[in-house]
Amino acid sequence: MRITVLKRVLLSNVLIGLMVLAQSELALAETTVTRWNDAALQAIRSTKPGPPIVARALAITHTCMFDAWAAYDAKAIGTRFGGRLRRPLAERTLANKAKAISFAASICLTDLFPTQKSSFNNLLKSLGYVPSDKPTAKTDPINIGKTVAAAVLSFRHHDGSNQLGDLHPTPYSDYTGYKPVNTPTKIIDPDHWQPLLVNGKVQKFVTPHWGKVKPYALTSGKQFRGTMLMPASYKTSPRRYKEQAKQILEYTAHLTDEKKVIAEYWADGPKSELPPGHWDLFAQFVSERDHHTLDKDVKLFFAITNAIFDASIASWDGKRFYDCARPITAIHFLYKGQIVDSWNGAVDGADWQPYQVSTFPTPPFPEYGSGHSIFSSAGAETLRLFTGSDYFGNSVVIAGGWSRVEPGVVPAQDVMLYWPTFSEAAAEAGMSRLYGGIHFVDGDLQSRKIGRLVARQAWVKSLKYFGIKK
Fold first, then answer.
1. In DSSP terms, which residues pair with 395 in a beta bridge?
2. Which of 140, 269, 337, 341 minimizes the number of CB atoms within 10 Å of its CB?
3. Model confidence, pTM
4. How far apart are CA 285 and CA 300, in angstroms?
């Protein structure tokens, strides 16, 4: 009897020890990936790059983390080394995975956001690592992280993004010679994009060369261009051109508080994490909701950021190819000298403004198609594919008077935005740009369609890297 009791006590102690270890490892799993994701999003908010640059930065960061993690997984293969770095079973501990991906992320983010290096080093320290640590063993997790990060960065430094300024003097600047048809003061061709004069500066098309960037899974930026409807043209389809402009006038003239909140919540303008980062925050919600391990988080963020990265390339290919006018240009052109209803009362059509903050009335790039819509549909579709369900269940409460367009006035009382499904969240993101007067209906709907196609193609490739055959 005494032996039996002793065995039970020993077994109980072992189980308690395992539970404590499991809880400790779970805590590590819940924080490592998302903490580096948070670091990336904060660097984006601090440095304010354009949307496609944000999408690329997040994809590269999570690819480095994935490749470092893959060395400690039984099936996954890295994007640069395949399975050549795979470590034996005894080394596949959570601690080694976390250490490898942390150093990979730190090196990657320092390359992408060099001015934020100190914050990345501080995060390493907070996770218990020494940033300057240089172990000699090639198989040490630190060296695994450094090796994969160097390989991924070397590949992406020459992907057509011009990150290093080797194709044109300024990093990420255009090397294709884009020049706008219109000027801030003259609409020469109402079918084409017009840079605006904002805060005393003339807008410049952000990364017009982005359609040439090497994608993750797409064959090229123009792969799905042929599946889109031709955008409305004043020259060839004037009736449709006028109808879409009138539709935006009607949307913006009859905004409820809820629609105004939707327009502003999804705007994701400067100083935010921008639309690609917004869907990373949604992925973090899913991670917490579904109690992800580190393994699941690495795969989730790798899949969603690369899908959204490809969406940026497809979207900017269309923006450059069609070079379409924004609603503000079309409405100014069509309704100059006419009184029109707007969200801020009756105004001359030449003075109409979108429902946006005055310092950022419309983004500095052409309309067709919608970046918000393609980013959101690609993100939503990836989350649906990853979780196996469209269920989302997320919400946000916007406090009364929160508006930056009408501060202290809108909304008159608290407003809750609730998204039962990923699809409904993506649809609301697309509609927000109509409420805000930023996009036309075709630019929204066509981009939603392309975003889903991009996500499905990217998902097939991600599954191969996960080591899953379908």
1. 418
2. 337
3. 0.93
4. 12
Q: Concatenated DSSP letters for 283-347?
A: HHHHHHHTT--HHHHHHHHHHHHHHHHHHHHHHHHHHHHH-BPPHHHHHHHHHTTSEEEETTEEE
CB neighbours of 384 closer than 8 A, spacing ≥ 6?
A: 390, 422, 423
Of all residues in the chain, the percent with pLDDT exceeding 70 is 93
| Predicted local distance difference test score (pLDDT) of residue 31 | 73
Give the chain's radius of gyration (CA, Å).
24
The residues facing 201 across adjacent strands are 198
407 close to 252: Cβ distance less than 8 angstroms: no
Reported as a single tens digit per residue, the pLDDT across 185-219 is: 999 999 999 999 999 999 999 999 999 999 999 99
User: How, if at all, do strands 339-342 and 345-348 pair?
Assistant: antiparallel
- At 334, list the tokens: 């069509």
What are the structural domains, with CATH classification, of the chain? 2-156 (1.20.144), 197-466 (1.10.606.20)
369 prior amide bond cis, ω within 30? yes
One DSSP character per residue, 75-132 reads: S--BTTTBTTTPPPGGG--HHHHHHHHHHHHHHHHHHH-GGGHHHHHHHHHHTT--TT
How large is the greatest C-alpha to C-alpha distance in the chain, in angstroms?
99
Cα–Cα distance, 32 to 38 (Å, whole number): 10
d(CA 140, CA 100): 8
Whole-number Cα distances in Å, 232 to 87, 122, 238, 290, 432: 55, 51, 7, 43, 20
Q: What is the DSSP letter of 82?
A: B
46: three-class secondary structure by DSSP: helix
Task: Give the Cα separation of 120 and 348 in Å (integer).
Answer: 50
Element (H, E) at 240: helix 238-253
**Cα distance from N-terminal residue to C-terminal residue, the chain:** 54
List CB contacts of 87: < 8 A, sequence separation 6 or more: 71, 72, 96, 139, 144
SS3 state of residue 26: helix
For the stretch 428-452, pLDDT in tens is 999 999 999 999 999 999 999 999 9
Q: What is the pLDDT of residue 467?
A: 97
Give DSSP secondary structure letters for 150-163.
HHHHHHHTTSSS-T
Distance (Å, whole) CA 298 – CA 36: 11
**Is the confidence at residue 168, as pLDDT, over 90?**
yes
Partner residues linked to 347 by β-bridges: 340
Token digits of residue 9: 């006590």
| 3-class state of residue 348 by DSSP | strand
Please classify residue 213 by burial: count the beta carbons closer than 10 Å to its beta carbon, then call 0-12 exposed, 13-18 middle and 19+ buried: buried
